[in-house]
Amino acid sequence: MLEQPPLILAIDDSQLVLTQLEFLISNQTPCKFIGFDCGYKALSSPEIHQASLILLDMNMPSIDGVEMLRKLSELNLQQPLALLSGENSLFLKNAASLASLHGLNIISCIEKPLSVSKLAELYKALCQFNKAPPSQKKDITYPNEEIINALYKHEYIAYFQPKVCSRTEKIIGVETLARWNHPQNGIVSPFYFIETLESANHTAELTKQLLKQTVEFWSINRTLLSNLQFSINISANELSDVSLPEKLERICTDASMPTSQITLELTESNIINNIRSSLDVLLRFKLKGFKLSIDDFGTGY
């Protein structure tokens, strides 16, 4: 059960959907419901910091859900969040991944149209979230030493996110993302460790470990994955290591994976300071068959 009465805040440009949400949620639990038909109104409201649950529509005209996730992160909100959309489940899954990268607490993704059963599942997820120990919620921080030690304990694992063609809805590639398989807290978002690893110049080791896991995954499923492109992020500070092209090439050749199936996406979290060594490394990546891309999507992890 939830505290009585919980404050439920919904953000959706459709007044009809807000009315439907209020009706369906009130059937699950007595609550105080506040609906906003514009994201900007919600962001300026004091209630957004007091809500027991925030429901966010991803398809809004004035400020869309992706922008809202960024704004909510800037407010450092820790409240549980549920995403709503008329888009398909893959879109919602990717939106939830983005929210996690922003450090937000996503507890549910709901495809429209709404229904009693979908809201019942949401209520169950909210109850489970409230029962979770504090160590599993987003206010936790990790010491730098623990983050770095986890790298050499091989606690960071690859998550494979499909890239889907919006026209055909077919998988056209795979992005390798980093997650921390924490021994106590389970799967931890890169929000909590990437900045530390970058500051300590340990992202090159992370890249090698993620590439090894990607190559192993490809090798096991070679027949199915032979035509797919895999993308892995590298930080600009890794380009100071002129031996990096050989190291990554060796990982691929040891498993007979063509380097041409790997796209190295350079994240813009750090400015390239040494143009000479960076250009040296990038050109030699190309000579060894790797594809290169500039990742404009923030950290890309």
Summarize the structure.
The protein is an alpha/beta fold and 301 residues long. The chain is built from 11 helices and 11 strands.
Protein described:
The protein is α/β, with parallel strands linked by helices and 301 residues long. The protein has two domains: 7-136, 3-Layer(aba) Sandwich (Rossmann fold), CATH 3.40.50.2300; 144-295, EAL domain (TIM Barrel, Alpha-Beta Barrel), CATH 3.20.20.450. The protein contains eleven helices and eleven strands. The chain has helices at residues 15-28, 39-43, 65-74, 89-101, 116-131, 144-152, 194-199, 203-220, 222-225, 244-254, 275-287; strands spanning 7-11, 32-36, 53-57, 80-85, 105-111, 156-164, 171-182, 186-188, 229-234, 262-267, 291-295. The strands form two sheets. Strands 6, 7, 8, 9, 10 and 11 form a six-stranded mixed sheet that branches. Strands 2-1-3-4-5 form a five-stranded parallel sheet, with helices on both faces. The model is unreliable at 296-301 (pLDDT under 50).
